[in-house]
Amino acid sequence: MTDIIQLLPDHVANQIAAGEVVQRPASVVKELLENAIDANATLIKLIIKDAGKTLVQVIDNGKGMSTTDARMSFERHATSKIRTAEDLFQLHTKGFRGEALASIAAIAHVELKTKQEHDDVGTAIEMEGSKIVSQEVVATPKGTSVSVKNLFFNIPARRNFLKSVTVELRHVIDEFHRVALAHPQISFVFYNNGSETFNLPISNFRQRIVNIFGNKTNEKLVPVEEETEVLKIVGFVGKPEFAKKTRGEQYFFVNNRFIKSAYLNHAIVSAFDGLLKNGTHPSYFLNLYVNPQTIDINIHPTKTEVKFDDEHTLYALVRSAVKHSLGQFNIAPVLDFERDPNLDTPYGYKNTTTNAPKIEVDRSFNPFKNDTKSGKQTTVFRPTPNNWDSIYVGLESKGNDTKKDIRELHFESEEQTVSLFENENEAVQTNTTYQIHNKYIVSTIKSGMLVIDQHRAHQRILYEDFLKNMTIKEATSQQLLFPLQLHFSKQDIEIINQLKDDLEHTGFVFSNVKEETVAITGVPVGVPESEVSIILEQLISDVENEVPDSNFSATDLLAKSMAKSLAIKTGQSLQKDEQEHLVNKLFACKEPNVSPTNRNTFITMSVDELDKKFI
Length: 615
Fold this sequence. Notes:
Ribosomal Protein S8, Chain: A, domain 1, 3 domains, eight-stranded mixed β-sheet, 17 helices, 22 strands
């Protein structure tokens, strides 16, 4: 029998490695930005075209590479960060696996230009699919420039799995935010399709957060700071009243490296216990500094998951630090057992009696005194307890006129409400709907019983209404007495501008859309003013995450998102007429069987099925 095991060719091995390192354009952005940071750059420029599908370019002013290093950087497992296996537990740099450039070069067209400070000229290398196309001397400024073009050009199947430009751009921006937030001491500039999206100067951590997420973010932040032998925490959490429906603004950085940790996230949520509304998530930007020997970063190819030696201690420290900050800045109620001596009674007044305040009344004052200036005589009555009946003196002579006046008086009657039904008994008899646990509506049908999920049913009703209004462009709008000012980040404003026309067809009226502010003067009929910001936040989140997928139109996505936000929630009590109206509207829909997310809106149970339950 012949041997069947053989070594893979280098270009195949590189493509397999690329599958672990490069999942989408955002992965390339992350690797190139981290390499620029390791090169001690103070200014990093990121240039993106078509969400990174066409071009990802990173330019830095770091220390650059020699000609030999430039060529070696494209070899597999080539790195300057570690030498021995023990170095994996003393990491102070970003990239250490030595696979980034080799993996990227295997699936894209890569152009590298680099020069060290003391050299007169630099080196330019072009590669296509792990093959060197050219290497030559070039005039270039100090630092390194890496251009990655036509990602997955030799793996069409992987390219077809990429999402739309909007979704891929969102992932690129997320990676840019993670790197920029972890390094406020470095200046970052981000260009998207030729326009400058972010220009982040060198600053402190708080200012970096504000520069990324908008000036309104500054008033939402609560500082968190704690230092122990095990852990040092420095950062900010968002105030509970600014909690969002999405998990967008949640960042953990361990030794200046972004990580994801559901365990530590639970510690934050437990610290906010009792302060958040249902369905909302707190914002946090926390830097955690631990001994590098106590963590293992090399457990995931993207290095976003970290293994801690003592997770329970970190959990307790993070939770207590956040809870302490919320109480210290009067965000959460606390019990204060310390007595303020400034509020004590001075010694000189301890044994003295308190004099009650006196009230002086002018007993000679009479508001009904004679008005001699106008020439009118006013009769003054001064009834006393003994002669109270004197108040009626003088009215006997005008008795007839008084009766006449009383007969001519008209009294305003209370408003009478007319019943919707001519006979209340008939209304009770015709009612066939009942609500169970404020969640389901039960109605009788000829064959048995109908059970309707009120939330999903209302979603279907609203979805078809919004879709109809946006299609025929005849939505009605209710004007607001005062314009509603909402604040969003720059990338969220771009999404709102994309959906502005469709939103206006549903009934929204925008008076002004600026860089970070949206002014709304009209909303669709039936939409509460307090729900507008929630609707737009949910809509932005759905567009960024492409819910549903790219095969659906923006109009369909908008109708689904608004229906989900405005539908009757589970737990809401409905009156009898509201229940009947919901049932009638549901079965007037084109597709009453399923919700906009393809879930059943109702189930039926026949009499035979009910009978079997009692056998």
